[in-house]
# Entry
Amino acid sequence: NAGVTQTPKFQVLKTGQSMTLQCAQDMNHEYMSWYRQDPGMGLRLIHYSVGAGITDQGEVPNGYNVSRSTTEDFPLRLLSAAPSQTSVYFCASSYSRAPGYGYTFGSGTRLTVV
Amino acid sequence: DQQVKQNSPSLSVQEGRISILNCDYTNSMFDYFLWYKKYPAEGPTFLISISSIKDKNEDGRFTVFLNKSAKHLSLHIVPSQPGDSAVYFCAAPPSVSNTGKLIFGQGTTLQVKP
# Structure
């Protein structure tokens, strides 16, 4: 059982380039989400999904796109990378609507935009 | 507007003693609170949660206390162990009906000295 798998682990982009951060889970989880972690700011929600075909914006969605065509996959697309998008990105998933149930996080993608 | 706040960036305690990590929130609509632990180069892992109808939840060495009138919660670790050294985040879903997203605090780095 792999849990939540994120690829790549590290990436360097030039300003203006686009790329897709991959996230896959094999736990049949309904909920999936993307967070970014920046120093002193905790984790901030970018986009989230409550099921295949359903996505919504989080706190910091600008510059990012998502889609959820299958239960397993939830890719995050950077449309035109900017230095402000340098961050560590985490994907998370959960099967339960019970709010006290914790999310399972991937190990993260460290992105640097130069 | 930071709805979940962890005002202490770091905490250092001696092995065997109690660690107390604090979290304040501003939104009285929060019904659940969660604590996550994060080691370097890994994703956060769920630690413990508490419902707003309770004032205490215990799981082994970890206990979370909730003071609704003060909009304050704390995580107690007793006894502290060197392996507990990590960043701890408190988090809350904005509402019971919207559990697809979590709002995180900034995190507190705990160092447990042998």
Q: What stands out?
A: Chain A touches chain B at residues 4, 31, 33, 35, 40-45, 48-50, 56, 58-59, 90, 92, 94, 96-108 (CB under 8 Å). The mean pLDDT of chain A is 92. Chain A is about 0% helix and 50% strand.
